[in-house]
Specification:
The protein is α/β, with parallel strands linked by helices and about 525 residues long. The protein is about 35% helix and about 25% strand. The strands form four sheets. Strands 1, 2, 3, 4, 5, 6 and 7 form a seven-stranded mixed beta sheet that branches. Strands 13-12-14-15-16 form a five-stranded mixed beta sheet, with helices on both faces. Strands 17-21-20-19-18 form a five-stranded antiparallel beta sheet, with helices on one face. Helix 6 packs parallel to helix 11. It starts with 13 loop residues before the first strand and ends in a 6-residue tail after the last helix.
Amino acid sequence: MKDLDLDAFKAYDIRTKIGRMDEELQTRLFHAVGCYMKNSLSVQSVVICRDARLYVPQLAEGLSSTLLSYGIDVYLNPQPISTCQYYHTMMKHRQSAGVMLTASHNPGEYVGMKLMEPDLFPVAFGCGRDGGIAKIKQYYEKGERMSSFSRGKLHIINDLDSYIDYSLKLAGINEGDLKGQKILFEFLSGSAGNEVALAFQYAGADMEIRNVVPNGFFPQGDPNPIIEKSIAPARDAMRKGSFDFGFCFDGDGDRLDLMDADGNQIVPGYNMSILIPQINSIFKDAFHPFDPQYYADVKAIPAALVDMASKGVGVHIIRNGHSFIKAKLRENFSKQYLAAEEESAHYYMNFPYDPADPSKGCAAVESTLFFSLLTAKCHMLDPEAYRQAHEKEKSLFREREWPLHCDGHPEIMQGLMDEVENTMKAEGAEIIREMDDGSDLDAVLMRFNLPKVFDKNTSLGDNWIQVAERISRSEDAMVRWEVASNTHKGCEKMNSLIKKITDRYVADGYAHY
């Protein structure tokens, strides 16, 4: 029997290597998506956008043709754009479902789909009507197809100018407002370059722009800011160029890594803390009384959580996963949950359909263009806040999230994680598995000398350590860990304890780094 590559159906999207999805399987997938759109969602139209990957043009053509044959109208942007611009297009077509053809930060041979229901509700595995991606997988396994319908209509769209205008207005930036800011931009040959560069050019920033032309070969390396080989040239340029700060984007432009003048990452939680007053100003007239709440992901640095809470907002730990975070923001907007950050450099917000009046409704999505503009504005208004963030980071010791691949032996992952957790318990860790609303964290947070809840009165003592452990839901058979501490000794000790365990699994042939 033909290998159907069922592993392509991930927790939050559909993603695989093009070599595992030949023309026959691509067609099978197009029909599965068509059946879901027609039967489960009952939509009349679908938005299709794509990034710069080499193989997504053929997916855009094939999926469009299939949906049209199902009698569904298609709004197609044939140009490579960011996932964030796709979300903006969805905000303009709220009655439509949507498909973004991308594989995010993965290497060039990967392809994939991020899907949305009408009104911008995320479709994930077990999330969305009839089970979301789980239902699409079911259609795919059965090879479902539907009878022919009267053909839908194809509409070619381009929302570049609209997206730039919306983002500038929401960030409160006019022509020339960023004059004097010297900023380096590293786009890693992904799809965000055009929209971001045009917006900052209008705002008057002094820019050095790197790898701005979309190129699915990704000649500088995988389009992932966490990979040192890919980002090292930008870091070097930062150190030599006397920049105020720098931005680095991933392949589909929904990740925003902020670099200081020395080329080092500024922790996303610290940046969000600085942005909070500006974000609050967007929403303050929509709620009475005003009591804003923010999410930070399970890996968020405790010192940054203290910083965020010091702004007088509620701070709540949330599990990883784009679809889950968006769904929670959407669900809790009436409770004044405004925005969220992930330490992987993803920023989320309840974006108002009308920038002047959030009470008319919001979409819980991402926009790196908005967040980069707002960051630049805050840096201009208060450069001292970023200098202080840089100084605070000097007292942090952090082993950024690193993976262990268990492909071939996924059955060992839970036992491996239990072993790490038991080791941390023996060292005196407090174990946290749930969000404060009782939802599953889908991860294990292990804390030493840290509070469970952070508020405006929280201060950190000496010798604190945090260890985050989770199974990656966007990769095959991968476990990840991140360690943070205010002492080098604490960070090194806990990371070494984990490595001692994982080294044994690697030596026995069950895993690899």
